[in-house]
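RECORD TYPE: protein structure
NAME: Type-F conjugative transfer system protein TraW
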Amino acid sequence: MRLLTFPICATALALAIAPEAMARDYGQHGTVWPVIEPDLLQQIHARLTQLEKTGETARLNEELKRRTIARVNRPEPVTGLSLAPATRSWRFDPTITVERDIADDKGRVIIAAGTRVNPLDTVPLRAPLVFLDGDDPAQLAWATRRYASTKAKFILVAGAPLELMKARQRRFYFDQGGTLVKHFGIRAVPATVEQQGRALLITEQPVTPNERAPS
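PREDICTED:
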């Protein structure tokens, strides 16, 4: 126990004199400079002014405009798709289970959580969806010939929709990011989606030699 006496006393002494030591004024040593930080907004404004004077802003705007127009005229192709080697068909059930109550503007529940809903019961698919590669003349010839007298929606996975609309005088859509083909499980084109009762019939089908002639 005697061995612990000195450390305990030393600790008590240090705690006793600590406030006095901390409160002592040692004066000023050396030069003290104020902290000066540049204003961020002023820096941004100065940078923009410099870009405007040198014409860099105009160049950047033109580059952005050029890229935007190019992307609209020819969107990024959907990856992971191949040319249909053989006919493959399957049924797709669009029924979903509502995760939470759906209410109207007055708070009245229209569809309760847990209800299974088939969108085709209220919004039928009135025309086939035709997925195709807009850069493949054979697929274009096949689609425009087979669906010439219908209101089928041509949905490109590659190609230039605006250019084709002008040349073919009909509307073309584009599956941005491959959202639809992923949803339906389509792996090859051309492919069609048509309503069959309360389900959708999806078919991948190759273009036969006699359907390859330009239309």
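COMMENT: The radius of gyration is 35 Å.
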